[in-house]
């Protein structure tokens, strides 16, 4: 297995509050890694630190290169990020918004070429948003807009994709579709870190899970192990039922403890 990304003792503070307390994890090529944990555990802070959006201590490597050695454009080509609840306030047409995902590939004064157009089409087809391409994003439903924003992140065609709660506002059909899109993206040899709250989707579609709790990495491994009864009880304060799936156990949150 080849590593796509790793963090070493990653720490971050927000307004002097220590939020990440030394997280070391790694992402393999071809892997979907689910980043899970209760509200406030530090998941968004971790992906924002990896995306270079907040100051941090510790090291981040992409393809074994320290990200600190990459310029902004190169970092944006290597790592695509979809923020939690990403929105556009401007009535830009959906296709134009997706095309913004190609900006890291364009030099100053360069116009998009055939390869950029093809990447935009691929991303829109994957996210199932071709039907909205000529509509202003401000006139789409929340779930439709969320898929357009995902298409923008996919259009970068970066080796590493970071997505923060990509299924949050989607109906069950599109939740499954987006998880299949992320799976397909990784199966092509790219890598995904997805912040997820839905433990059944996480256990079904992710290769491994990183469980954050109070800024620490509480568990890291295959879903069945990370979502063991003891972790569910201690960290999530729930019990679960389990079902056999293609990749191991699928965990269905069942009762509060
Ligand atoms: N700007 C801020 N200043 C101070 N503390 C913050 C700030 N933003 C977030 N926090 C705190 O940092 C902690 C981690 O927040 P973060 O958003 O990373 O959690 P999360 O795991 O993504 O949570 P959720 O599942 O609720 O989205 C929380 O306790 C939160 O209250």
TrEMBL record:
This is ABC transporter-like protein. One of its GO terms (molecular function) is ATP hydrolysis activity. The keyword Lipid biosynthesis does not apply. SUPFAM superfamilies: P-loop containing nucleoside triphosphate hydrolases. Keywords: ATP-binding, Nucleotide-binding, Translocase, Transport. It holds the Pfam family ABC_tran. InterPro entries: AAA+_ATPase (IPR003593), ABC_transporter-like_ATP-bd (IPR003439), ABC_transporter-like_CS (IPR017871), P-loop_NTPase (IPR027417). Belongs to the ABC transporter superfamily. Part of the ABC transporter complex HmuTUV involved in hemin import. Responsible for energy coupling to the transport system.
């Amino acid at each position: 297995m080849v590593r796509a990304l790793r963090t070493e003792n990653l720490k971050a503070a927000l307004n002097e509050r220590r939020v990440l307390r030394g997280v070391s994890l790694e992402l393999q090529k071809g892997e979907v890694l689910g980043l899970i944990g209760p509200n406030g555990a530090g998941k968004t802070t971790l992906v924002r630190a990896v995306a270079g959006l907040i100051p941090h201590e510790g090291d981040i490597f992409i393809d074994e290169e320290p990200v600190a050695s990459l310029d902004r454009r190169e970092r944006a080509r290597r790592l695509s990020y979809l923020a939690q609840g990403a929105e556009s306030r401007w009535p830009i047409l959906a296709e134009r918004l997706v095309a913004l995902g190609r900006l890291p590939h364009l030099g100053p004064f360069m116009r998009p070429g055939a390869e950029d157009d093809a990447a935009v089409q691929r991303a829109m087809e994957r996210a199932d948003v071709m039907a909205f391409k000529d509509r202003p994003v401000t006139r789409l439903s929340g779930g439709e807009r969320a898929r357009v924003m995902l298409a923008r992140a996919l259009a970068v065609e970066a080796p590493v994709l970071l997505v923060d709660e990509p299924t949050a506002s989607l109906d069950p059909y599109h939740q499954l579709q987006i998880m299949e899109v992320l799976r397909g993206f990784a199966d092509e040899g790219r890598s995904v870190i997805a912040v997820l709250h839905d433990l059944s989707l996480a256990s079904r579609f992710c290769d491994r899970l990183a469980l954050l709790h109070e800024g620490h990495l509480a568990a890291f491994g295959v879903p069945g192990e990370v979502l063991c009864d003891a972790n569910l009880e201690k960290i999530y304060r729930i019990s679960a039922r389990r079902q056999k799936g293609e990749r191991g156990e699928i965990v269905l949150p069942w009762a509060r403890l």
